Amino acid sequence: MWRETGRKITFFGLDGRAMFLLLFVLYAPRWWTLALALLGIAVFVWLERRGYTVPNALRKMRIFLTGNVKRAAHRSRIKKSLR
């Protein structure tokens, strides 16, 4: 039983973490939410085939959107003499 705890959860061969998009379909059942969820799942499947997992893909997307350099503190907390 414990040996299975580290395994990746799959649902019909897909990463189970990509299925969180189906929660939007359950919350607001419309055709466009279903299409958007299936498109998102297809993107995650494509990224998984390229070697990314869902958390790695989301982290890579966050870095792409925000940039590589991060400030240690917010701009308002840095002294004006150090700017």
Order of helices and strands: EEHHH
Overall number of domains: 1
What is the 3D form?
extended
What is Rg? 19 Å
Helix and strand content put the structural class at mainly alpha
First-to-last CA distance: 56 Å
Question: Main beta sheet, described?
Answer: 2 strands, antiparallel
Average of pLDDT? 81
Instruction: Please report which band the strand proportion falls in: under 5%, 5-15%, 15-25%, 25-35%, 35-45% or over 45%.
Output: under 5%
Let me know the number of strands. Answer: 2
Low-confidence stretches: none
- Provide the spatial order of strands within the biggest beta sheet: 1-2
Residues in helix, %: 40-55%
Figure out the total of helices. Answer: 3
Task: Draw up the topology in text.
Layout: E1 10-11, E2 14-15, H1 22-27, H2 31-49, H3 54-66
Antiparallel strand pairs: 1-2
Descriptive notes:
It is built from 3 helices and 2 strands, in the order E-E-H-H-H. It is mainly alpha-helical and 83 residues long. It has one domain (8-82). A two-stranded antiparallel sheet has the order 1-2. The chain starts with 9 loop residues before the first strand and ends in a 17-residue tail after the last helix.
